[in-house]
């Protein structure tokens, strides 16, 4: 099977990485397909199993860990596991497409370390932690406790930015989307 490219977009929650990834997926010339992560959390809002995530029980997730079915995985919060199934990457590569990830910082760096030449690891930096908190509150999808957990984690994640191939500063979304497009276009050609 011909390996495609891996485009990793990582950032603290609320940084805009999902919006940027969705924009890139709409650009047909980039030949991208979204890597659907496995997760043990409950679906939020209109999320659909097999579209946004492969939702699974903690028991099933741990069976996949034991079978070494993941490219990467992490217990992001207590009993809240996320991971990328090897079969997902293989499925996309078999279609002749490049894989794009919207993934947490630790997972993104693990993919980069396993596939160093095939991966472009991009960190999306928010304007500030205060802006992150505002965006997370605006979503109205999580409790204040969850938001505070995400903000505490954001401080740690921001410190990892220099470990990525490049940093996009998302102070202006349209500028960030254009910058992301150019980076991906150059890397995949």
Q: Which runs of at least 5 residues are low in confidence (pLDDT < 50)?
A: none
Biggest sheet overview: 5 strands, parallel
Strand order of the largest sheet: 2-7-1-8-9
Distance between the termini: 19 Å
- Structural category: alpha/beta
Whole-angstrom Rg: 16 Å
Total strand segments: 9
Strand content: 15-25%
> Helix tally?
7
What percent of the residues sit in helical stretches (DSSP H or I)? 40-55%
Silhouette = globular
Residue-averaged pLDDT: 91
Polypeptide structure, described:
- 42% of the residues lie in helices and 23% in strands.
- The chain contains 7 helices and 9 strands, in the order βαβββαββαβαβααβα.
- Strands 2-7-1-8-9 form a 5-stranded parallel β-sheet, with helices on both faces.
- The radius of gyration is 16 Å and the shape is globular.
- The two termini are 19 Å apart.
Which helices and strands, and how do they pair?
Blueprint: E1 6-10, H1 17-25, E2 32-34, E3 37-39, E4 53-55, H2 58-66, E5 70-77, E6 80-85, H3 86-94, E7 98-102, H4 105-114, E8 119-125, H5 129-139, H6 144-159, E9 166-169, H7 173-188
Parallel strand pairs: 1-7, 1-8, 2-7, 3-4, 8-9
Antiparallel strand pairs: 3-6, 5-6
Helix pairs in contact: 1-7, 5-6
Highlighted features:
single chain, 189 residues, alpha/beta, 5-stranded parallel beta sheet, 4-stranded mixed beta sheet, 9 strands, 42% helix
Short description:
It is built from seven helices and nine strands; from the N terminus they run βαβββαββαβαβααβα.
